[in-house]
Structure formats: structure tokens, C-alpha cells
Amino acid sequence: MSENINYYRDKDIHLYQVTDNYILVLQMYPDTFSYAIVHKNRLVAMGIDCSLDVLHEPGHNHDLLNYNFRQIVTGLPSTGFTLVPTLLYSKDRVADLARFLDVQSHEKVIAQPLDNENHIIYKVDESLINRAEPYSLENPVFLAKGWITAIANYNPQPNNLYLNIDNLNLVEVLYCIGDKVRFFNRFNFFNPDELVYYVALAAKELDLQPQNLNLILSGDIELDDRNAIRLADFFKTVELNDFNLLDYPAEVKPHKILPLIALSLCASSEVF
Q1: Which residue among 75, 127, 230, 233 has the highest number of C-beta atoms inside a 10 angstrom radius?
Q2: Are residues 68 and 125 in the same domain?
Q3: pLDDT computed for residue 269 by the predictor
Q4: CA distances (Å), 250 to each of 6, 223, 261, in order?
Q5: What is the mean pLDDT of the chain?
Q6: What are the CA-CA distances from residue 103 to residues 79, 121, 137, 155, 272 (Å)?
Q7: Do 24 and 140 reside in the same domain of the chain?
Q8: What is the mean pLDDT of residues 261-269?
Q9: In terms of C-beta density within 10 A (0-12 exposed, 13-18 middle, 19 or more buried), how is residue 143 classed?
């Protein structure tokens, strides 16, 4: 997460204060992870792009990870996913539906509600799950689920298209009407023109005109970087997502931290 603080700890927090009233959220990646500790509407601590070794040996800087939490939510990156209308979803059908994902022997399938009308079935590299085992994976969730939930709960307008840039070359595109998800997909891109192409493709699928669309950006992006500048050439407006889900220091940028802290909004999932 460029141009943003990578470590924060509330100066008023002490080890003995971390009790089962606190929530830990983990954002897992193949080589790194990020975490946030949340108490009610306050960010107590966070670490961004930490080595996976910290999960097993937190050390002094991350010693709060040693404590028991009321809930642990672990966002896992998928290697493939499919959306299923809730009316067509049943636990007994998950194995059949997962066949479309070409699940390999080293992958595990997870299913959970995405919103009131959709379930998401996705596959995860099991080696990453094993790396997160110190935290028991009591509540594994689709990595983008918190971000999706936060936006859907915010009463998004029909001329807004939401983008999350994850690790610089993956864009997640979300469109909601009211609190209902109408489109979600993700694309790998390698230059600004490819990013514009995929966002325009999503708009076309939704029968929306770029000149009428406001792009609301989260993640690894700034308004003055080349990706945002190129998007601004084709869409009505481009702005950063300023959702404030928690109280946190001014130096933390809301659009950078939203996908992480929004994981605290997630409910339990089922593991098969």
C-alpha cells in the first residue's frame, strides 16, 4: 500500500487491554499478510505487508497478535470463483458447482453468502490456509467480501462504479443498486490502457455509458498516478473512496485501508 503508513498502534493500548472484546482481521496473500485489530469503531493496531513469518513469531512490534480475540476474520485470496443466486444455492450442490472452478488437489473450496441475493463459491490454495493455521481460520472469507459489504451498505448510487486496485495489477470491479450486488468481477492488468479496457468492458456489460459513470477508487492507487489519470480520460469523474468505517489516525488514508478494515463486517463461511 504505497504512500501510506505500514504500521500503527494506538499509544493508549497496552497488552493487558487486549481481551475477547477485540476483533482481529487478517488479509492474506501468497507472500505477505496485513492485519488490523478493531475494538468497536476504533482501529487499535495494524500492520501492512508483513512477512508471513510474523504469523508464527509476532515479535515485539506485533505482540498484540499473541492474544485471544472475540473473533478472527481471515480474508483469503481466491484462485477462482463463481457467483450463484441464493435461490439456486444449497450446501448439497456446492461440490457440483465447484466443478466449474477446475479445483486442483492442492486447493480447498469455500462457500459463503456474498449478499442477500448471491452466494460466492471460491477456491483457495491450501498451502496459504496452512500458513494461517495459528489463527485457526475460524472465519475464512473471500478476500474482497468486506469491501463489497461496506459499499453495498453505503447505499451506492446507480451512476457509481467501484474499483479496488489490489497489489497494483489486479482490479476488482463492483456495481450495486441499493444494497444489492449487480456485478462483481476482477481482472489482471499490466498497464493503464488495459485497466481502462477492463473497466469499460464491465460498463458495457452493465449497459452503462462511461461518460456518465463516476469511478470510486480504493486500494493501491492515487489520483495523480498514471492509472487514475488514464481512467479520468474516459469516465465522467474519478475519485477516492472516503468511507470511514472506523476511527483511525489522520495519516491513514481511508481508500487505502478500506479493503482491510471492512473485513470486520464479514460473517462466518462454510468450509468444504
Answers
A1: 75
A2: yes
A3: 43
A4: 14, 18, 15
A5: 90
A6: 9, 11, 20, 35, 12
A7: yes
A8: 77
A9: buried
Sheet with strand 140-142: strands edge to edge: 7-9, 42-51, 32-39, 23-28, 71-76, 140-142
* CATH number where 196 lies: 3.30.420.260
183: β partners: 175
* Confidence (pTM): 0.92
Q: State yes or no: pLDDT of 1 exceeds 70.
A: no
The answer to whether residues 139 and 269 touch, using CB atoms and an 8 Å cutoff, is yes
* Residue written as grid cell 492442492: 106
Per-residue model confidence as pLDDT tens digits over 117-145:
999 999 999 988 888 777 767 789 999 99
Query: What type of residue is 215?
Result: L
DSSP string, 144-203: THHHHHHHHTT---TTEEEEEEETTTEEEEEEEETTEEEEEEEEE-SSHHHHHHHHHHHH
Nine-digit cell string for 110: 469455500
In whole angstroms, how far apart are CA 214 and each of 157, 178, 223?
A: 9, 16, 13
Q: What mean pLDDT is predicted for residues 177-182?
A: 91
Give the span between the Cα atoms of 265 and 181, in whole angstroms: 16
Cβ–Cβ under 8 Å, residues 242 and 254: yes
140 Cβ contact list (under 8 Å, min separation 6): 74, 76, 110, 124, 129, 269, 271
DSSP state string for 201-218: HHHHHTT--GGGPEEEEE
Based on the domain organization, do 17 and 36 belong to the same domain?
Answer: yes
User: Alpha-carbon Rg of the chain, whole angstroms?
Assistant: 18
Measuring CA to CA, which residue among 230, 263, 269 is closest to residue 245?
263
